[in-house]
Amino acid sequence: MPVDFSGKWVLETNDKFEEYLKVLNVDFATRKIAISLSQTKVVCQDGDKFDFKTLSTFRNYELAFTVDVEFDEHTKGLDNRHVKSLVKWEGDKLVCTQKGEKANRGWKHWIEGNKLYLELTCEDVVCLQVFSRKE
Ligand code: ECB
């Protein structure tokens, strides 16, 4: 059966998140708030069509895309950049490249056991977020 990311996931661990925010030039005050947040990921998957909602008490971020279709992404409320994004399957991993001002930027999602993993990369920084299923 193909992988299904759909569901509600709550952040459990967030390794190197502040380093990731720094490399994106997020200011000190915003970083301190951001690293203290609980994040919830709400994912709706319909085949190769995805809707990702990243929710917190401070800011929310929504991203909808289709695998293999490049799109313009504005990271509004995050680092507020414009990038060209493309998501592909690499086996059961969902791999996004975000072309723009910052080198080597992108993310990867996969599921292992009952956990959702998100690796966020920018330049030489790799942040690893691990989520568990909510309810
Ligand atoms: C939206 C909750 C976090 C709010 C943090 C506020 C300010 C931080 C500024 C820049 C941070 C850059 C990324 C934040 C990390 C997670 C948010 C979503 C990252 C992302 O692109 O997730 C993908 C894959 O799940 C779907 O958009």
From TrEMBL:
<comment type="function">
    <text>Cytosolic CRABPs may regulate the access of retinoic acid to the nuclear retinoic acid receptors.</text>
</comment>
<protein>
    <recommendedName>
        <fullName>Cellular retinoic acid-binding protein 1</fullName>
    </recommendedName>
</protein>
<dbReference type="InterPro" id="IPR031259">
    <property type="entry name" value="ILBP"/>
</dbReference>
<comment type="similarity">
    <text>Belongs to the calycin superfamily. Fatty-acid binding protein (FABP) family.</text>
</comment>
<dbReference type="InterPro" id="IPR000566">
    <property type="entry name" value="Lipocln_cytosolic_FA-bd_dom"/>
</dbReference>
<dbReference type="InterPro" id="IPR012674">
    <property type="entry name" value="Calycin"/>
</dbReference>
<feature type="domain" description="Lipocalin/cytosolic fatty-acid binding">
    <location>
        <begin position="6"/>
        <end position="133"/>
    </location>
</feature>
<dbReference type="GO" id="GO:0019841">
    <property type="term" value="F:retinol binding"/>
</dbReference>
<keyword id="KW-0683">Retinol-binding</keyword>
<dbReference type="GO" id="GO:0016918">
    <property type="term" value="F:retinal binding"/>
</dbReference>
<keyword id="KW-0845">Vitamin A</keyword>
<dbReference type="InterPro" id="IPR000463">
    <property type="entry name" value="Fatty_acid-bd"/>
</dbReference>
<dbReference type="Pfam" id="PF00061">
    <property type="entry name" value="Lipocalin"/>
</dbReference>
